[in-house]
Amino acid sequence: MARSRKVFSWHSRSLWIVASLLAVGGAGLWLLGETAEPISLAEVQQAMTAGDFQQAGVAVRRYLAQHPEDSEAWLLLARCHEQADAPLEAAAAYARVGKDSAARKQAAERRAMVLLKSAHFDAGEAAMLEYLAEYPDSPAAVLELYWTYFVQLRERDCQQLLEQALASRPADFRYLYHLLQGSQKPPVAQEAVLNLERVEAAVPHQPAVELALGRCYWLLGRTELAERYLASALKGVPDEPSAVLAAAGFHLEQGHEERAAELLGKPVAAGEGSTEAELQQDDRWWWLQSQLALREDRLEEALSLLDEAMKRRPGQLQYVQSYGMILNRLGRQKEAAPWLERAGQLASSDRALYELVHSGAVEQPDAGTCQQVARHLAVLGRNRQAAGWRELARMLQLRGQTNHRPSTTTEVASERMAASRGPLTAAARKPS
Amino acid sequence: MNRNTNPTEPGSAGSHLSKAALQLLQRCRLFLTALMLCLAGCSDAPSAPPPGAVDSTTPPAARPDALPLPRTQAAREQAALEQASGPFRFASVASEAGVEFEYYGNPSEEHYMTEQNGGGVGLFDFDCDGRLDLFLANGDHFDRPASEAGATQQLYRAEADAGQSSQFTDVTLAAGLESFGYGMGVAAGDCNNDGFPDLYVCRYGANQLWLNNGDGTFSEVTEQAATGDERWAASAAFADLDDDGDLDLYVTNYVDYSPEDPPCYRSHQSHRVRISCGPIGRTGQADVLYENLGDGRFADVSSEAGVAIPVTGKGLAVQIVDLDQDGLLDIYVANDTTANFLFRNSGGLRFEEVARLSGAAVGADGQPQSSMGIACADYDNNGQLDLYVTNFSGAVNDLYSRVEQGVFLTENNTAGLDTTARPMLAFGTVFADFDLDRRPDLFVANGHIWDLRIFQAGHLYQMPAQLFRNRDGQRFEDVSAAGGEYFQKTWLGRSVAVGDLDNDGDADLVISHELAPAEILRNETPPVHAGVRLRLIGTKSARQALGRKVTWTSGEEQYTQIVMAGGSFQSTSDERLLLATGGFERIDQIRVSWAPGRTEVWNQVPVTAEIVLIEGSGEHMIAAPVSSEQFPQ
Fold it and tell me: pTM score, two decimals?
């Protein structure tokens, strides 16, 4: 009895399934019948030209239902989404443009741009890095990402990005100029924080933005907010070296040595790709470890940790100065003297660059100024930049001209700040 | 040099010492003899610590069992103990005390560079009545002369009795001090050893030396003394740098500037605002060292002495103190945008610049800072004098901690001073033990030089002043929030001087501002211990022991303090030391370094409100309490 009930039950279930399938199939056929009328991309473009992006969007969706792999259609759909202030949908559409498509480069760049301009900094940065990995020689993209880093007070990332970009364009004035400007005119925390707060309000909990806010509030002396944002960023990206290092630096400064030590962890023989291994590639990790050792009067250890930091970043003034100071503290004044003198030379060159930048001389540099900049950069061990300025000098000498500056750091930063208010300002979301 | 030309100068024999002391007492009508007071049983002992105050003869941080602890743990332990001392409290009393002074050379639409510094503050007892008087330098304007506005520098005479609220009367005219010009730094020092402190005013334009006539008036003797350097001077300090018994004078010069220089701007997108020019790109002006010739004249010995370092020096502040503990007074100069100087005194009025190698030239990041002010004290009680140097906003202020190895370490980060200092543009600063817990605390006056609010969101133009409590000799804590109404407001803070204005045994403050009147902050912090003033009178040495070190011991504890010579920014502070001796009936030992090889020791000195130590006498004296009846105007 029980068995027959089971069989009946199985039969009735099967019937239901078949009936459902028929119903869905029928509906599908009916729908297909309704949408079967072919749509051409020309019609879509026509609607777009007429400014009817809503109609264009509907049309291109229908088109894509029939031609889901058509890259050009995805491109058009992405543009419609952009027009409809739907940056995430636009980015998703741009991402569907095929690798073999002629529009691939444009789509990949646009995808990153639309995310960045709509304050989706984390996703935008990832998209832009993907784009640059595929198309490294893209000055506009490089500079876009540079500004993204700049407004987030990521000076180190700014520098790395532009230094890498110099590999393909060794004497590109834009790169050289912004590298110099950025090092001597860093972003202003008071200004950055207001805009970053707007970004945070519009697109909350982006680790990069939280990290930037944490650093801003730290610089502004507002420790509670700084701690909150740094912790939140760290929660979002616990393995991100810059988040770990910023939090550790913050806690060290607040006198929370144990917390800093906990964050920095211990030097371990970790596997490649692990957080520890990645951290240990970063000179700042060694620097912070040395500071921690100093706090605990482990002076010799602090020296060797600093040594490691300097191996990873030679010519860093702070490290050289600190090395000399620790030797002084150990009573080894004779050994300290050359380090402190070297620090003096580095400081002198850095000051000279500061004065050149602030005097406006590098806005439209002549060959002499370029040579001067190159000399000081060479002292500071920034050889790639130095070579670039030398090459620039040579070219200017040949041409007998001066170069004209790109937009200044502050100007563009402000524009970026304004643009980063995207979700709050419709105009900023319009594709250019 | 010929010291005999000064008729008031004491001789070197013991009889002459008594005579000198007597002469001083008669002239100042200030002191009673210690013997009289002791016989009469009229103990002038300081009042007992208030209820709830910690009365410990051994500060917790210095307990032998506390020393081996790692800093962090020690700090935590200290955090609990520190609750014992009350909050820092200061009352703003300038107005009720009769001081209503606003600097004339305030920032104007023309944004002249001379408008950045504000006016200096001088705290010194010009009439020797036992009360600190107040001098405020005044500014000028290239287009609207101060003389037309009647904006003179001002001298205020203190008139209140000991322990009472300060009362000041403007005596500028009566004192013959009416003068107009771009006044900045103020140095007070008894340069002719007559017992009455004289006055040197740094200016943009010729500086002025005013001789105290001892009758309540001053005479300008700049020309006779040959001290009228015409470059832009910011700060100055008197001290006996060649140990010949009279005070020499060090003047920091800033940069080359003319009001006709092209104006400076800051631009931002479509905005462009005019600002006062900064020192970048300007030629630094070498400092001046004047040797006191002892006959009323000074000689510019800057080059021979090795302190005239042109171009690199853009000096804004100076502190004279024996940093390397060899008995010779060294000179520390805070430079704006260039490395600071430490001129090590080699003797014979020769100096060697050793700042970089000794670790006190630049910040921890190796960069020269835009340094503005200097505070000096042994904050960590290791017997070595430390320096705190204030800098521009965006950079931290530097705490140069001197260690036994004879070098300075930048300890501001470890000391917890970075986070709250970074957003501030700091000028005047002083170390003072505000709560009398035997650890020097820190006051910093802040305020930007440029108003960029029009295009820089969040820009701080006026800034709050800051007060840092020295928690354990290792870490400071920002206690500004509870410091009183003054700390709730924002200012363009500039010069700061510290001293016991109301003679109640604690450290009060005077701060000059721009675009706001000068303020007097009366210290109302509940003291942990009672404070005792200590005054030194030199006989073989210069009468004022400016820059000299005093070490005092009670029980197993030893403390090092200095008589201020310069320091802060453009200011002169009280020459008397405040010793937090409460709880002790006697100070076991006071050791005064008068000069190289001339250290004098006083043992078992009874604790009174004010102690006077006269060089070579071996005796201490007790100053009588100040009374207006006793010293009618």
Answer: 0.85
